[in-house]
Amino acid sequence: MGSTGKNHKGDGHRQRLRERFLESGITGFHDYEVIELLLTLGTPRRDCKDMAKEAMARFGTLQSVLEASPEELCDIKGIGPKNLFGIKLIKAVSERYLEKRVLKKDPVRNSRELFDYLFHRLRDKNREHFQVLYLDAKNRIIKTETLFVGTLTASSVYPREVVSASLLNRAAALIFAHNHPSGDPQPSPEDIAVTRELIFACKVVGITVHEHLVIGDNRYFSFADHGHIAQMNREYEAQRQKLKEKS
């Protein structure tokens, strides 16, 4: 109700959206309706359907709308710094929820939750993000951290910085993850090379690397599942044995 005592023309539609959600959850909602519902949290009176549809037309997917920057969202007519509140809130809450589900758990035995968490964080980034998950001696996640942003190559991911951060966080083991904005999770030769460098560097200080996941478009590549982690560990041990024999 406004000060004139008249209902806003969008009030009935907005109420119906909320009732649908409360009755049956998000099932049956179009993606633009989800965005519309989120926009209503920061837009008390204005009809949000057109701006929600334009956001979907501009960014293509619900995930891309949620990942869009405030500046990109504000380029859409009707969306401003105040009414994008709901979009940014739901993304932050989702990340917190997924993070709490994986923290202090063994990701080796709870891989599905770990994958869900990483997919949510990385799948729609338009640049490559290299993340490290620090694990304690019982393989429980202590913390997750983005250490590098940009193209994942041997020159942009520095093993020295990874080792330093791992020691600072008192990690006993690590999981690496990075995204491929192209959507194809197949690792590049540079991905394989830098993973080997990281495993070797961590071995020197007694830190175990369990996994490196490459996140694509609803797909992932597991270095561990494909035997690369075990093979790289064998290569390290072979090199160490050769050095012992020489000495």
Key features of this structure:
2 domains; 247 residues; disordered N terminus; alpha+beta; 5-stranded mixed β-sheet; DNA polymerase, domain 1; Cytidine Deaminase, domain 2; 5 strands; 10 helices
Task: Please outline what is shown here.
This protein has 247 residues and is of the alpha+beta class.
Q: Can you put this structure into words, describing what you see?
A:
The protein folds into two domains: 11-92, DNA polymerase, domain 1, CATH 1.10.150; 105-246, Cytidine Deaminase, domain 2 (3-Layer(aba) Sandwich). 49% of the residues lie in helices and 14% in strands. The protein contains ten helices and five strands, in the order αααααααββαβαββα. The protein has helices spanning 11-24, 31-40, 49-59, 62-67, 70-74, 85-102, 111-122, 159-168, 189-204, 228-246; strands at 129-135, 141-149, 173-179, 208-215, 220-222. Strands 2-1-3-4-5 form a five-stranded mixed β-sheet, with helices on both faces. A hairpin with a 5-residue loop joins strand 1 (129-135) and strand 2. Helix 2 packs across helix 6 (85-102). The longest helix is centred in the C-terminal third of the chain and has 19 residues, at 228-246.
